[in-house]
Amino acid sequence: MEADHKVLNTKKVTLPVTGMSCAACAVSVESMLKSTSGVADAGVNYANQSAWVDFDPKATDLPALDKVLQSIGYGFIINDDEDEGIAEQEKLKLEHYHDLKRKTIWTGILAIPVVIIGMFFMDMPNGNYIMLALTAPVLFIFGKDFYVNAWNQARHGKSNMDTLVALSTGIAFLFSTFNTFYPQFWHEKGMHPHVYFEAAAVIVFFILLGKLLEEKAKTNTSDALKKLIGLQPKTVKVIRNNAEIEISVKEVLLLEEIVIRSGEKIPVDGKVISGSSFVDESLMTGEPIPSEKTAGTQVFAGTINQQGSFTFVAEKIGKNTVLAQIIKTVQAAQGSKAPVQRLVDKIAGIFVPVVIGISVLTFVVWMFFGGENALTQALLAAVSVLVIACPCALGLATPTAIMVGVGKGAENNILIRDAESLEKAHEVNVVILDKTGTLTQGHPQVTNWKWSVNLSDQAKHAVAVKLLESRSEHPLALAVVNYVQENGNSKIEHFESVTGNGINGIVDGNEYLIGTLSFMQKENVKLDADLEKLADVQREAAQTVIGVSLNKVQIALISIADQLKTTSAEAVRKLQEQGIEVYMLTGDNSQTAAAVARQLGIKNYMSEVKPDDKMQFVKKLQAEGKIVAMVGDGVNDSQALAQADVSIAMGKGSDIAMDVAKMTLITSDLMVLPKALKLSKKTVATIRQNLFWAFIYNLIGIPVAAGILYPFNGFLLNPMIAGAAMALSSVSVVTNSLRLRSAKL
Asked: 298: buried, middle or exposed (CB in 10 Å: 19+, 13-18, 0-12)?
């Protein structure tokens, strides 16, 4: 959690922050920290609810900084154990979500009868008093956070969406309350005392509903981090004083000997010193074939041992492991992303002071030039300005388009997690594709089984090969076992596994060798010339070849590969036709990468890349001004996915890749990718149209509400009509968003 700052003798810490409900809250937290004595610098990530502070320990400390934040309604979660800190933050987030859900439900229950009375039974006896009684708890109990946040913003000389909500609902409520208790004030002037309780209640309900949807999305953003942290085992077996003991992974020391058995996760990075096994390293490489581990080879935290056991020496522990670095970069990249709603907050920050200014100016002008009924007309006009400037349409502009866009995506096998991905995807000009599981099927399969020309009883020998391979620990053995459909009554009389070469066995009196052709040469097997030529062709096509011999004579050649998906080539072509550069990055060897790229028509590719290499390549393209989309399916892709402008996971990939990614293609068909980019263009166009309509009503309505037409035709907008105009703007925004449903992708 901490790192010494060598230049200024300060310490830099990153801690979870509680109480932030909008982007403006993050600004407040950051400004308060920066202005605190002893703090050199600070920054806040609203997306992952955390802040980093660079401070002088001699001048201040974390409890003191926590008090500073508490004075404005926020706070730090201070915990020496970072994992426990994250868990505590998640608990608070969940509690906040349930609290928000409760408030939204109760607001809806109370607001519905207010709307019914206000719209259809406005003349019922005591109707105004009933609406007042129902609206008061909506505003001042379930919606009180809007007023508290608006006040906090005002104290810092700022404004946001909460300010608009508080002002418009507060003025409407106070005006309506006055008219409820003192209707004679207007009756004496020959006017009807209108009330706007329904407008105030509905505004709070809609905004709370929007915040609930946003919070629900945010509660899932840290799932990837929790799952990444869960990849590391809690305990580990080490050798101390010539005895094997079990300790916490946090207690492991550098250069300590660690014992790993079949099926166990590797806890830290290190080097094997004895034993052998195969380790599933798809976490690091993305490749489906487990890697063989013998003395001298490297192992990494989070990877999973298959069969066999070994001992290794710890070379990197704690936050220095590759897995820890992946967690750190995913967290940082996720936190740097800002939600689209910040755009609305920024607009509101300018819009609110302008509206307030116009309302005050309207009141002043009418007081001077209003004649006999100056106060009445000034009050009506000022209130009309505030009511017609209600942020309902502005608040709905983005979320309604996103909701319809998300639904449209789901119909087309595109799972969209947030507005940011929809906003950015239409600008993408570079797509990076992972190979394994994205362009290929993701698991090795037998692609060709060629028998020697003169061989009889092929089915019998295939069953014998299947029987022997079923005993093998080699990861490719399963592909052979799955390929052979026949079963027989043969029995294994002898079985021997030759590590790194193949297997030797006797079935029904016949001696079989299965493995590499070099292994067969060492065992003096007579190789088949035609099968050898075929082996060269298959290797050129990036396939693994395995020989089979019967009584020292080669009888078959088996080719195994991770096959391309049927639609991969067409999907790549479609992307290239749209003017998008396509890159392929893979942890596989250069020969395989070249063969796959050639088959797909991809000119730009990189082989043998590690997770961090992928992320650095994304950064490099971004530095060149490119808008990058990353498409992957494995944990090894998570860093690059988090760094990319648009991150897309394949639905049959790892849970962590899907959690990090902002879009998931539910199907394994890559042809859905071009559709996702097209959906982005249509959704962004709808959002822009919605924002236009939300503002055009205000641009026209505010001057009319202020009384600009009065000198020409005597027209002064009634607040009730202003409320109707506000509602109409919301209806137009929602209707425009619904048009997305019929869009063709």
From this structure: middle
pLDDT in tens, 142-153: 998 888 878 877
**Spatial separation of the C-alpha atoms in residues 675 and 513, rounded to whole Å:** 50
Going by C-beta distance under 8 Å and a sequence separation of 6 or more, which residues neighbour residue 101?
212
Q: Report how far residue 619's alpha carbon sits from residue 739's, in angstroms, rounded to the nearest whole number.
A: 37
Q: Residues with Cβ < 8 Å from 567, sequence gap 6 or more?
A: 669, 670, 671
Q: Model confidence over 370-403: pLDDT tens digits?
A: 766 677 678 778 877 876 776 566 666 776 777 7
For residue 130, which amino acid is it? Answer: I
Alpha-helical (H) ranges within 138-257 are 144-155, 161-181, 184-187, 197-219, 223-230
- Give the active site residues: 434
Interhelix angle 161-181/341-369, rounded to 10 degrees, is: 40
Closest CA to 505 of 477, 464, 476, 473: 464
445-561: CATH topology is Calcium-transporting ATPase, cytoplasmic domain N (3.40.1110)
As a whole number of angstroms, the distance between CA 288 and CA 66 comes to: 47
Q: Can you give the pTM of this predicted structure? A: 0.56
Cα separation, 634 vs 298, in Å, equals 20
638 within 8 A of 330, measured Cβ to Cβ: yes
| Residue 361 banded pLDDT, cuts 50, 70, 90 | very high
Domain ranges of the chain: 2-78, 233-320, 338-413+679-745, 445-561
H helix or E strand, kind and range, residue 611? helix 611-623
What is the third-level CATH fold of 233-320?
A: 2.70.150
Structural fold of domain 2-78 = Alpha-Beta Plaits (3.30.70)
Going by C-alpha positions, the residue among 382, 281, 381 that lies closest to residue 587 is: 281
